[in-house]
Structure formats: C-alpha cells, structure tokens
Amino acid sequence: MRENKEYRPRLKQDEYEALQKYRAIKEHSDEMGIDVHDVRGGWLKSKEASLQFKNPHYQEPDFKTDDIDWAKITAGVFRKELYKPRQDCNTPHNGIFDRLVYTDVHIGMDIPDTAQYGGVWNRDTVMDNLSQMIGFVLDNQKSDILIVDDLGDFMDGMGGKTVRKMHDLPQNMTDQEAFDVGLEFKLRLARELFSQYKTIHFHNVCEDNHAGAFGYTVNSAFKHVADQIFKNSTVDNYQKFINHYEIENNTFILCHGKDGKNLRFGFSPHIKDSGKEKINNYIDTEYLMKRGVRIEFSKGDSHVELMDKATPNRFEYCNYPAFCPASDWVQTNYVPNDNGFYFFNYSDTNRYQINPYYFEGR
After folding, report:
1. At 67, is the secondary structure helix, strand, or coil?
2. Would residue 351 count as lying in a domain?
3. Which one, of 56, 28, 47, 144, lies nearest residue 93 by Cα?
C-alpha cells in the first residue's frame, strides 16, 4: 500500500522559478547575517555571465515622523543668537546673485578611532562646520539674492545602510537622532542666512546612493517648515537623478553623481565619454543650449574637488568637495582630500568671484 504523503499543489513554471530565486536570496542573506527583507537585489556573477536581480520580498524602510521632537529642534535653532557679519565686510550688495554649494554632509557617519588619519564627525563637529559656513557666506555677501545647492548624500544612510542595502555603514547616531540633527542643520542655515538675505532659493538633490528616501524625508520636513516661516524662500527637493535650474543667463545642472538603484558606476571626477554623452543628451532633451548662456554641471559623490572647464566643450564639469571629513573607508582606500564648500558672487554671467572654503584638518 502506497504511503499517504501531504498533498502539495503543482507550481507553475514562473512560480517555481520565483521560489528558487527566493531560496537562493534567503540562503545568501542568512550566510551574511542580513535580514532578507532588507535586500533590494544584487548581482549573480560567473565566468559566463553577470545577472542583476531584484528581491520580490524586499521591504522599503518605513521612517515615521510622528515622534519628532519639534520643540527640541526648533529651540536649538530659534533661541540661538544670530551671527553678525564683520564690520570690514559691509560691501555694497550690487551683485545679481550669490550661490552657496555644498555636498556630502553624511550626517550620522562615524569615524572610528582606528581610522588611518583619524577625525571626528558627530553633532558638535557638524554644527561647528555649519557655523563656519554661515559666517563665511555672510562675511562675503555681495547680493540680496542667494542660491543654496545641496548636491546630495546629506544623510549618511537609513538604518546604517546605503540605499542599495549592500553593506553596513559605521554610524554614531540612530535614525531619529540623525533626523533631528539634519533638520536642525537645514533650519539653522535658513534662519541665519535670512538675517541678511532678502530672497533665498534652496535646491536639494534627493536621488543619491547614501541618503535616498532618508534625505528626502529630512528635506521634505525642511520645506514644510520653511514654506510656513521664511518669506521670499523656495525649496525644491529634486527626486530625479539629473535636474537643472536657470538664473541670469546661467544654467546649473545638479546631480549627486551616483543614484540609488540604476547607475552602478556614477560620474567620475575626470569626465569620461559615457558621462559626457549622458550630460549632452540631457542638455539636448531639455533644450538648454542657448546663445550667451553658461552651463555648469555640478556634482558631488566623489569627495574630490575638480573644476574642469576645458574637457567638455558645451558645459563646465564641476566636482565639489565633501562637507564631511574622510570616512574610514575613504582613508583606507584613497588619499583624503580637503573638505569644505564653495561660495560664488555673480556680478554678471561671465564675471563671478569664486570663494572656496576648507575646514581645518581632514
């Protein structure tokens, strides 16, 4: 007599293949000690082929803002005495606009004691660098209009992970603590700058490889508050990989340099033909090429300062330095570069003053 076995329905071919893929993903996740729901996807590689896959059981992190301590954040911003520009810096505000560019703040990043060149990156050092940036801008103001460009990776990563969730990030803050510091950073920057500027336009790149949805959440909260409190301000939070805005015969194309899912290798510090093709295609698609208009492609990500005005013939290719110091990974794999930001005074399209600023140490 045949043994009575548990009945199992026959799977369709596509269901069977999906089940096999899930088992493989789960087995590899278990081997690495990673929750299978945190794995967005990956690559299966062999000598013959390289296959990218998506995990059907991936769950997007749910960051809730219900428990935000708004009183604590705003108290740290609005009860602080405003910076007063130096008396010897009171020059006429006859420029057409000023522009502040910073990138790669990586709030929450931890630099361990074992890092090759050392360094500290916590709330105190973040706010100290912010104070230096505010002071430098207000001491060198030449216009009543200011553009503020944040080129991405403002937050280090939600849950101690990059957007792709492929590896752990050493961090010294919880997601909630990092959120509070990030929002305080944005609000304090706006409040201090509005003490001297009449109009400010904020542009925040939110498609990047570290901050992702976390960065957008912080910038969205900032936009909500700024729209209510600060007059003559605009906040644009860009969720596309490449974006642009136009002002006074200048077109600025903003991009972090690397995205969260599609572009495995981003824009390099020295522009390659593939990168040049992408930018030229964007220029043509958006009809940006106009007589007398200067085009700048502004990017972060590389943590390297490199302004290339020679290689591309239709635009300037500008890599901006990181706001944060070098991480442990960067210190191990590369030579750390100066960290800082750039501030520009525009008197007209072809005449502008460039003011780089570097923080002490690395």
Report:
1. coil
2. yes
3. 144
pLDDT digits (tens, 9 = 90+) for 225-280: 999 888 899 999 999 999 999 999 999 999 999 988 887 778 999 999 999 999 99
Sheet containing 316-319: which strands, arranged edge to edge?
243-247, 250-255, 294-299, 316-319, 306-308
43 and 182 co-located in one domain: no
pLDDT range class, residue 289, cuts 50, 70, 90: very high
pTM reported for the whole predicted model: 0.78
| Pairs from 85-94 (Cβ < 8 Å, separation ≥ 24) | 85/138, 85/139, 85/141, 85/196, 86/139, 89/138, 89/139, 89/140, 89/141, 91/141, 91/142, 93/141, 93/142, 93/143, 93/144, 94/142, 94/143, 94/347
Asked if the structure places residue 62 within a domain, the reply is: no
pLDDT class for 348, splitting at 50, 70, 90? confident
User: Could you tell me if 119 and 30 lie in one domain?
Assistant: no
How would you classify the pairing of strands 243-247 and 250-255? antiparallel
Expressed as residue numbers, the domain containing 79 is: 70-358
Is residue 24, in this structure, part of any structural domain at all? yes
Total structural domains within the chain: 2
- Could you give the residue ranges of the DSSP H alpha helices within 247-311? 273-285
- CATH code where residue 129 lies: 3.60.21.10
Neighbours of 93 (CB within 10 A): 15
Q: Do 75 and 49 share a domain, yes or no? A: no
Eight-state DSSP code of residue 291: T
Q: Are residues 163 and 25 both part of a single domain?
A: no
Residue 335 CB partners (closer than 8 Å, separation 6+): none
Same-domain check for residues 188 and 155: yes
b/e string for 37-74 if b means 16 or more Cβ within 10 A?
eebbebeeeeeeeeeeeebeeeeeeeeeeeeeeeeebb
112 falls within a domain: yes
Structure confidence at residue 52 (pLDDT): 61
The letter for the amino acid at 66 is D
**Judgement on whether residues 159 and 243 belong to the same structural domain of the protein:** yes
Distance CA 330, CA 307 (A): 21
